[in-house]
Every structure is written in C-alpha cells, then in structure tokens.
Amino acid sequence: METPDLLEIVDVSRHFDAFLALDKVSLHIKAGEFFTLLGPSGCGKTTLLRLLAGFDQPDGGDILLDGKSIVSAPPEHRPLHTIFQNYALFPHMTVAENIAFPLRMAGHAKKDIQTRVGEALENVRLPDKAGKYPDSLSGGQKQRIAIARALVNRPRLLLLDEPLSALDAKLSEQMQIELINLQKDIGITFVYVTHDQSEALALSHRIAVMNGGKIAQVDIPSRLYGFPNSRFVADFIGKCNLLEGYVRDQQGECVTVELDGLGPVHVCRSEVTLAAGSRCALTLRPEKIRLGRSSAIPGASDTRTSMSVAATDSPLDDESHFTGHVHDILYLGDVTVYIVTLANGVQLETLLANSASGRTSFFDVGDRVEVAWSCDAGHLVQD
Amino acid sequence: MQRKVCYKYLLSLPPMAYLLIFFAAPTLIMLFATFRYAGEYGGLAPWYLQENGRLTLDLTLENWQRLVATDIYLRLFVKSIGYAVATTLLCMIMGYPLALVIARSGRKYRDLLLLLVILPFWSNFLVRIYAWMIIFSPVGALTRMLNGLLDLVGVGPVTLMYSPTAMIICLVYVHLPFMVLPLYANLEKHDLDLLDAAQDLGAGKWRRFWLITWPLSLPGITAGSILVFIPVLGMFAIPDLLGGTNGIMIGNVIKQQFMESRDWPFGSVLSIMLTVTAVAVVLLGARLGQGRGGRG
User: Fold this and answer.
1) DSSP letter string over B173-192?
2) Least CB-CB distance to B204: which of A76, A84, A150?
3) Maximum mean pLDDT: which of A231-240, A243-252, A308-317, B93-102
4) What is the rounded radius of gyration, in angstroms, for the C-alpha atoms of chain B?
5) Which is the most buried residue in A33, B212, B234, B281, by most CB within 10 A?
6) Is the ipTM of this complex over 0.90?
7) Buried b (16+ CB within 10 A) or exposed e, B112-133
8) pLDDT digits 0-9 by tens, A44-74
9) The whole model's pTM is what?
10) Who's near A303: CB < 8 A, 6+ residues apart?
11) A window 120-149, beta carbon within 8 A of B
C-alpha cells in the first residue's frame, strides 16, 4: 500500500493585481518526503510557501494537511514551521529562549521545556551555546539554531525558504549533508524552496520545477535530469544542449529526428509517441557527448562522419558523429568545458574530466574535433 | 592607521570644546555659586573679602541649609517629578500606537504622517500655549461644551483653566512628538520576519506584540521617555500660563529666584538639584532599558 499524502495542494491560485503568481497549482507530498520547489525568481515558489505557512491566502483552490483543509487556519494554528531565509532568530532572546519559544507558546511545563531545549541543542551539536545571543553566532550556527527551534515541538511539516542562500559555498555544501541526515533521522516532511538546481538535486527525494506560476514537472532528481519534459526544464536543471529539429519517423521507442543544420539522427529513448513532422528538440547533456580528435576517426567528412551514409529509409547508426572545431575553452579545475561549433554554426557544449594532471585542456581553440553520442544519450522534448 | 586615529580626535575637538565651554564650565560656575552670598542688588556677592590687606574667603553653606530646612522644596521636586512621570506615561501610551502605525504604514504615507507629527513645531511654542489658554478659558468652546454635557447628568460646572488637567493636557500636547520620533525610528527598523517567525511558531497577536515588538522597542521607549521627562521636569512656561497659583513646578521657583527674588545662589542650588534629579532618573531609566530588550 502506498503511503498516504501528508499534504495536498489542489488547484491553488494566487493573483497580485494583474500578475498571476500561482496558476492552479496541484501537488501531492507524502509523509517523510524531502520535497523541493525549484524555479527561477518570480516563478511562484515563495508565494506557494507563504500560502502553506498561512501568511497569505489563496484566491482559489485548497490546501489539505492530513486530509483536512488548513486554508482558514492562521499560521499560529498550523502544525508546521518555517525556516526563514535570514533565520529570523529573536535577537533579544538567548539561544535557549529562542528554542523554547514554540514550546512556551504551546504551554509546555517549565521542566519539560528545559529538557527538550537541551535535547534540541544536542541534536544540532551546539550544547554550549544555550546562554549566547544570536548575534554572537556564525551563519552556520544560526542556521542550526533556527532548525532546532523549528523542530523542537515536532511539527508535521517543515517549510524551508532558501535556507542556505546566505552561506558560502563550502558551508552550504556541509549544511546540505547535515540537512539530508537530519531529515532522514527525524523523518519529518520537508518542503524546501530554492532557485539552486544543484542544491535541489542533491537534497530532494522529489522536485517540482516551477515556471511562471505553474508546475513544469514533478519527478525524482535523476529522472528530472535525465528526462526533462520541456525545453525549460532541460535548460534549468543542469547544463544542456538543445538541438532543434523535427520528427521524421518513429518506430517504437526509436525516433528519427532531422536536426536543423545537422541532418538526421537516431534517438532511442522516447517514451511518448511523436507526430511525424512536428517540431522537437534533442536535449543532450555535455557529459553524454564524447569528444575526440577528428583525425582519429577515419573517413571523417565535414558535416557528417558516418559509416552508413544516411538515407531516409535505411536505419541509422546507434551513434551520431559530427565534426567541428573548438570555439571556446572554459577551464573549471575538475573539468574543462569545450564549446564546439559544428557545421552551420550549431554550437555544442561538451566537457572532459581533467584526469591528466598539469594540463588545462586536451584541445586548443580552433582544433578540429569530432563529437559523438549514442542514440540513448539524449531525450526529445516538444514543449 | 596612526593618521586615522589622529583625524578622529581632531574631528571631535570642536564639539568637545563646545561642550566644555558651554556646558561643563557653566555647571561648575553654578555649583560654585551655591556657596556664595547673593549680591545686594541681585547677582552674586564677591567670594572673598579684603580686610587689613588680607584676603579671606566669603563662602557659606546657608543656601544648602535653606534647601533642607523645610520640606517645601522637596514637595515641589516630588510634584514636578509627578507631572513629568504622568506626562511621560501619557506620551508613551498615546505615542506608541501612533509610532507603530506610522512605522507599519506604506512608504508613501510614512513621510506625510511624520510631517504631520512635527507640524506643530512650525509655530511658536508660546503661541501654542496661548492658544490653549483660549481653549481652556471659562468662556471657551471646550469648557462650555464640557459643562453643557456635565449639566445634563446633573454635575456642577468645572473650570479647566488653571487646573492640573489643563497642565497635563498641554504638557502632553507639547511633548508628544519627542516620544513619537525616537519610537518611530526604532520601530521602523524592526525586522518583520521576526513577527512572521513568532506567528509561525505559535504566537498570537498579543504575544507577538509583548514578546517581540515591545522588548525590541525598549531602546526607543527609553530615548523618548528621556526626551519628554527632562524638559517637563524643568518646565516653567506652561505652569506659569496655565497652572495658576497651585500649579507651580520647580522650574517656576528657579525662575523666581533668578528674576523676582534676585537670589542667584539659592536659584543655583535648586538648578543643581534639578540637574542631579534629571541625571539620576536618566541613569535609572537607562539601567531599566539596558536589560534584554536593549539588544537589537
């Protein structure tokens, strides 16, 4: 039996004057899930979070927690807490008083509060900070106290509003690992808002990609990365080459696509049936593209190097090969990115890991190179 | 580094000199005056005598003895402190909601509302008090309306003029902006996320105010209270014009000593005591405000 939905968001809309911030958004979040709302700024993810917390009211639709509508409940009566972007620790209260706040509001006994604050401080490994004031803490410590405060009375749901955006990259990565472990240990459902796709991929069980007030796609991170359902998602999650073209023919999972300026290629991973003649784009991740010296491949011709010259009705290779020249090089340390210009000006972003030490790149700008990818490397999108 | 430090002291030199010349020195001169005799025609008598070519000091403790000889001055001080405390409390009760509303209103209206708060400053202080005299006068509209209403319920007529009520109304009226402005400056800086966080963690409207907004605004309350309390404590113009014979405060007596009685030494004694009282109250207030709420 499937785990029941903890949180159901049903056709929720929100307007701000003429601006439609949320357009009939529906989501189902399961108990114990680490769920992320991901999208560029202005996509509606923060609006949705504020609706969940109760700071704002939807114009239409319903929000159900454990099957009961919470739309009419004020924030103080909702069994969920929020981690604010700037942590929102009370500056005039000590760390212990901050953590005790939700327990005090719920009317717990003094003794009970004391033990639970102690436990909470142990959980975030800051037991010696109880008597300190927030402004004497570092960013990472404030973050952990904010989490301890929000979790101390065990809410049904924890909402996190870009909680790592104020931390530097190293600390942010460390906090990501802590968040994953914390969520696993306590089992409380997290709804996490971020615009950082790598953070979302690293943390989440499932991700909802939002764009223009709508849900673009909801899926587990690996499927979101591997099978984006639109040009927007493909482009927003990770780096992606989008090669435009049209559908020539489909046989089962195998589609023949005529790429603009490049000619026909095989794509063997289509889950949907595409109408012949319709426009589509091949999404190709840089790391899925193989890159080699053009001379290494015998019989390389300018546009299309292929062992079987393409004919409309004859099956294509499992591999697509093209030649081009290196247009730009971007050295990133662990990898080097090569921008390759193919025939007709089509540009592809590819990368190679810098396994050989002391070298910044395997190719120079202007070198003739060959790119290749297998027929299951890419994925077709139409939206 | 060395240069920076140098500049810092150089820049603070003019204000330091100003305060030394115009505040510290006069206070010391006044303190010295409390030990001297009054001059025959006002002013101060010389502080030394020349007898047989020898100089002798001519100083006295008489003025201080006069202060403690009767309890009339103590009662005047207590009464003045009472007026100052009442005015400060009323300014706080009326000024806090006003400052909060201004601080929480849209940016568009905020400047306009602040302008309205300081608008009375544009006309002269004394002119405004004379205006109150007209309002409070027995034939004034306010008194007649009030007495008309009281007559309906069978209560005898009252006079507002020369009453403590008139004094308090006018004192609050004059000093309200001094409470509102520092409070506004404090409240306007509050991080509203803190209120959202408190609500999110289960605090209702009243607890959000008393546990978050109020303690965070204590520095503003302290500043506003000091700005109201001190001038009211030494006030003489309002009691002079509106207080009548029973309404005098310590400020009136000090003025009397320097003007009508021409007794500068005793006026100085009362002035020094006024300063000491003000400093003591401010220190006490700062101490109270310095608690947990003093942060942020």
Assistant:
1) HHHHHHHHHHHHHHHHT--H
2) A76
3) B93-102
4) 24
5) B212
6) no
7) ebbeebeeeeeeeeeeebeebe
8) 889 999 999 999 999 988 999 988 899 899 9
9) 0.81
10) A262, A263, A322, A323, A342, A343, A344
11) 133, 135, 149
